[in-house]
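Our preliminary data section would be incomplete without showing what the modeling component actually yields. Below, a chain of 227 amino acids is followed by its predicted structure, encoded as tokens that our downstream tools consume directly.
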Amino acid sequence: VSTELSQGCARGCDLCSEFNGCLRCSPKLFILLERNDIRQIGICLPSCPLGYFGLRNTDMNKCIKCKIENCESCFSRNFCTKCKEGLYLHKGRCYVTCPEGYAAANGTMECSSPAQCEMSEWGPWGPCSKKRKLCGFKKGNEDRTRRILQAPSGDVSLCPATTEVRRCTVQKSQCPEGKRKRKEEQGKQDNGNRNRKDTKDTKSGTKKRKNKQRGATVATTPASPAQ
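Predicted structure:
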């Protein structure tokens, strides 16, 4: 290995060697190590080339190779920002086709997220119900809806749900039908009691009249004196 030098290095290089090229770049520059047979040659660049991302630190800024398959440029070791030609980019990875539930955004090779659908605001929550009934239970469900205003590529299947359901609790209350039924039953019961009372009073009145007739004095015509 050749002796390290600080004089005669390439522009932007603070320390170099004849065998390995630049060993330390000037501040703000990135060092890129290129393989040349059994040697690694260091060069200094203002930005990292395709297939690499820049990592800054206090000692020296470095260009590090992307580790993502079929990635042309990346933001970090495991997050791609541009795939090779003909491939689709989705969440930092490269695909032959977009994953299920996603589609390429207009004129790009990036798979759009369902979250990019333009949705209306949620409507108000509906009444608490259970099996289409609105009363006579304690726990039920309530729902609310929204509309799809615009979908990527016009495919509404890529958009999120338009209905949301949650559990709800209602105060214990009787259904109007139940109240009406109880009222009718109460009315029937009152009528029955009234009829029984009327029957009893009728029987009592008949009995009194009979007793009165039995105790009444029968008027008789006096016999004529004998001639």
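Residues 216-224 have pLDDT under 50 and may be disordered. Helices lie at 176-214. Preliminary results of this kind motivate Aim 1 of the renewal.
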